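Replying to the earlier thread about multi-chain prediction with a worked example.

Input:
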Amino acid sequence: MTQVDEAEVKPRLGRKRDHTRDPEILEVALDVLAETGYDGMTIDMVATRAKAGKATLYRRWPSKADLVLDAVACMKSKDIDLDALPDTGTLRGDLVAMVKPPSIRESERKLKVMAGIASMIARSPELAAAAQSALVEPRASVNRIFFRRAIERGEIPADADVERLCMIGPAMVAYSVLMLGKPVDREFLVSTIDKIILPAARLPTA
Amino acid sequence: MTQVDEAEVKPRLGRKRDHTRDPEILEVALDVLAETGYDGMTIDMVATRAKAGKATLYRRWPSKADLVLDAVACMKSKDIDLDALPDTGTLRGDLVAMVKPPSIRESERKLKVMAGIASMIARSPELAAAAQSALVEPRASVNRIFFRRAIERGEIPADADVERLCMIGPAMVAYSVLMLGKPVDREFLVSTIDKIILPAARLPTA
DNA sequence: CATATACGGAACTCGGCAGTTCCGGATATG
DNA sequence: CATATCCGGAACTGCCGAGTTCCGTATATG
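Result:
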């Protein structure tokens, strides 16, 4: 949903000279994108919902494709603060600590956006790159940190295939949501950690 | 869902009345779908490539959506013959035996089709159901058989979470291809089996 | 051979959306 | 208050693709 500060919804007071409203518009674009997909989304929808004029959007972005590209690229790291990662002392603790409702919701939104642009990714390297660095890389980075820590601790073998292990969580979530149409819940995520990720890391399920 | 026309009472003169070219057209539709996605695909493309008239397609399917739905539904089990599954005597053997170039190619085609319709799945339960039973269920069925056999053999614990285990392979492939844009090869698949699936099943890597 | 029938293909309508233009009004500044 | 600036919104253009119609032709059947 449009997560805009309710405080600013009131009649627009001062007109800003710069592009202050850009983030707001991009958020709306992502919402529409998640709901209708790229082709279903129209510039009018975005403009109307953002209470902006269509011309305003075109003053800022040369085309629909550019708007979407920008929106996807700006989705980066809204949900993850790399400096405030949990450090529980165990791999399982770290992984489970990431299973929080806000994180789950943000993940689902990302997946819906991904579904909305899926058909273009194969034909647009730019969009693919944006999606890669905004949607999949941040999550992988976090996991990489956890697994490296675990290796340093001696908790898992030093020759563990970190890249492969990093994929399991996101892959299972994406598959469940996009392919099976089944939204994930805390239980699914925790048992994925316990039944698959930790065994694959050769760690006994805690 | 290619339902045959009403039984004819009238004399059959002229050309064949059966829709003998349907499968051919549906195959072309799938190709175009995989290449361009649902919205990028036009009826003209399909007609031209199938050397058919656009009118012919509309004589057979009432709309583009129906054509695509039918095409996806008919994708069922082109690649897997449930009666000719390998039975190597070990779980690893069975799983690895499925890693064959034709199977990989068919998987990638299915994933491209999936990507092409991904944005509509959330809004079309019919299409979601078709994709489910034609694209994901067949593969899961095969895996289920392998894991059940392994349990019967006593190779893996009887309380193994078969449903979860079945997902790992497809999930990793889908994630790699759709999200990372990295086509999978035999090495990736085999090491996924050895490093993730078998450990998760509490089997030592063979 | 005669003919009913379906087919390929071309031409057409029609609606929707990307992108453009224009204008009245609100705003900030001096 | 004067004015330069930017915005929201509405009207407009042009294109493209879904769906329709029509016709010449191929073909199986009698």
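Residues 12-15, 17, 42-44, 54-55, 58, 62-64 of chain A lie near DNA strand C (CB under 10 Å from a C1').

Feel free to reuse this layout for your own posts.
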